[in-house]
Amino acid sequence: MGEDGRKSKGNETTVDTADPSTTNEKENIVKDALGDFGWWQARVCICLSLLKLPVAWHQLSIVFLAPPPGDFYCSDGGFNETEGIFSHNTSSNELEKCNYYKTESDGERNSTISVPCQRWTYDHSIFEETIISEWNLVCHHSQSANIAQTSFMLGILLGNFVFGMMSDKFGRKNPLMAAIVLQTVTGIATAYIPWFEGFLFLRFLLAFATGGTMMTSFVICMEVVGGWWRTAAPILYHLPFSIGHSSLSAFSYKFRHWRDFQLAISLPSILLLSYWWLIPESPRWLLAMGRHKEANKVLTEAAKTNGRKWNSMPASNIEGKYRKREVNESVHIEKGEINSKELKYPKDSPEKLHEENEEKRIGGNVLDLFKTPNLRRKTLVVMYSWLVCGLGFFGIAQYMGRLAGNIFINVAISGAIQIPGTVGCMYAMFHLGRRTTLTSSQLLAGISCLLITIVPKGYEWLVVTLSASGLIGMSSAFPTNYLYSAELFPTVVRNAGVGAASMCARIGSLIAPFITTLDIFSPVIPPIIFGIFPLLAGILGLLLPETINQHLPDTIQEGEDFGKKHKNKGTGGQNED
Questions:
Q1: CA-CA distances (angstroms) from residue 494 to 83, 320, 369, 499?
Q2: b/e string for 305-316 if b means 16 or more Cβ within 10 A?
Q3: CA-CA distances (angstroms) from residue 35 to 62, 282, 317, 324, 519?
Q4: How far is CA 340 from CA 6, 17, 44, 329, 336, in A?
Q5: 8 A C-beta contact, residue 181 and residue 269
Q6: What's the whole-number mean pLDDT along residues 419-423?
């Protein structure tokens, strides 16, 4: 009989029920329609990359929402706001900030006691109002601003996880639009909330939505490009983040009240609602879910935009093949010729053996990365490198907002300086290799931060320059880590490995605000910490193998062998896998 029929041999019935729309077939369909990169992908990727603007605005807005309070004084002890003098709130000729002195009498003698302050007067010469001055987040509440930023980073971590699962189940577009709507609503609502506790809650939801836009937009971007662009896209995709970071200064310079500032960085998200019409569903996801008519529509439009001659018949025929296969299987099951366990492939066929082998390979999990010594060492180094990226990047960015000088100029520089770092790392990765790019970036960041500790007083411009140099290193290391770690982990646990490693970056970003504010004890503590961590990461990175132009590992055993040096039996020399 035909391809979808059966062949009888004795009492055994063999049914060709192989899935005609294999992964390779779907890959070829998408590639034939789209090509590696064209005008259609350019439009989609540019639109998606613009989502990084509000990501940067909200992630780093704490620099202007809660800047260092500067001069503030306890106003419970007799401070005259009109005249700017203190009547009896002094101690050793220094103005008290967290306590005031109160005189008490027991009838026989008077005594002076120190009482915690409940009201403060702030310097409003730069900012009209911040969350610190509005809710008195000073003295015994001084860590509240750090908690606000830490909870925000925690929300991003949770948003990445939840929206990642949603995008697999419900498609890429619907979760993306849900995240955009939630980001818009919570961002605007945050500007009007009258309580700090409500501010924390809304910021957490805002971060949750922001994490969702980050995850789903990145996935769509990666699924519509191919070839060399699949490597370049993750790097170029992050460029608007640097622009958003730098533009925060313009927003804050114009809007000196934190509520106006928060509203200004939230309102542009309303424009992103237009993505419902501008961004298509991922054709790869549609094909994977069996929604072939929708996939065919998207691919036909994309091929037309890219000027490609594409035969849509393969995609159109997939659904028909599925239906024919299901009918064929049902007939033979009813006749008792096959059972459900033999449904997909005939017993002992090459396809069946291949499937069983694939199931064994796909059965890996993140714990497999720690079972063998070489793979365990590489995994720990990669995870530490990610932790340093999160700690260093967000830590140095917030640290620059606390430096002496003009806060608006400092933050603008810290954002703009990331652009050459990001572009430079793409060139370096393809010409110098992944390992050299990563280690040199981390060493640059570490050495720059450590040099800050020996800068003499009065050279604030040099501190800003060295901090910017450290941020260049971190902005180069971050995108390098994305590609490098994906190439180091075996295929069977690649997603789990990269996910676990990137979670370490979120942990670093959770810690960063607390390290940044250690300058209240000594100004050298933050740069020492931000210097030692990447310096150590750069040294440990030398233990990793180079991946450029190498056959990447697929199985756990290949991952263990990758990077090992083996003796060449013929020459006695050593080759690195």
A1: 65, 34, 10, 8
A2: bbeeebebebbe
A3: 42, 15, 20, 30, 52
A4: 16, 12, 42, 9, 10
A5: no
A6: 86
Instruction: Give 516's Cβ-side CA count (13 Å radius).
Output: 32
**Token pair of 495, please?**
């997603």
Q: So what's the pLDDT on residue 503?
A: 85
8 Å CB contact between 96 and 90: yes
d(CA 574, CA 556): 22
Q: What is the mean pLDDT of residues 354-369?
A: 57
Specify the residue for token string 């729309």.
21
The full DSSP string for 440-494 is HHHHHHHHHHHHHTTPPTT-HHHHHHHHHHHHHHHHHHHHHHHHHHHHHS-GGGH
CA 421 to CA 425: how far, in whole Å?
6
CB count within 10 Å of CB 480 equals 28
Is a pLDDT exceeding 80 seen at residue 392?
yes
**199 burial type by CB count under 10 A (0-12 exposed, 13-18 middle, 19+ buried):** buried
Placement of tokens 């607390």 in the chain: 514
**For residue 282, what is the DSSP state?**
P
* pLDDT given for residue 469 in this prediction: 92
pLDDT digits (tens, 9 = 90+) for 277-320: 999 998 888 887 888 888 888 888 888 888 887 766 555 555 55
More confident residue, 360 or 166: 166
Which residue type does 458 have?
Answer: G
pLDDT in tens, 106-118: 666 766 777 788 8
How many helices and strands in the chain, by DSSP H and E?
A: 24, 12
Please choose, from the candidates 174, 237, 175, 239, the residue with its C-alpha nearest in 3D space to the C-alpha of residue 209: 175
State how far the Cα of 424 lies from the Cα of 50, in Å rounded to an integer. Answer: 21
- Joined tokens for residue 524: 């050298």
Q: Is the pLDDT of residue 557 over 50?
A: yes
Cβ atoms of 177 and 276 closer than 8 Å = yes
How many degrees, rounded to 5, is the angle at CA 393 between CA 387 and CA 396?
A: 125
Which residue, among 98, 73, 71, 100, has the nearest Cα to 88 in the 3D structure?
100
> SS3 for 125?
coil
> How do strand 12-15 and strand 6-9 relate by DSSP bridges?
antiparallel
Amino acid at position 199, single letter:
F
DSSP for 163-211?
HHHHHHHH-SHHHHHHHHHHHHHHHHHHTT--SHHHHHHHHHHHHHHHH
The 10s digit of each residue's pLDDT in 135-162 is 988 888 888 888 998 899 999 989 888 8
Phi, psi of 73 (to 5 degrees): -135, 150
Amino acid in position 559: G
H or E element that contains 90: strand 90-91
Q: Which of 41-55, 111-125, 413-427 bottoms out in mean pLDDT, i.e. has the lowest?
A: 111-125
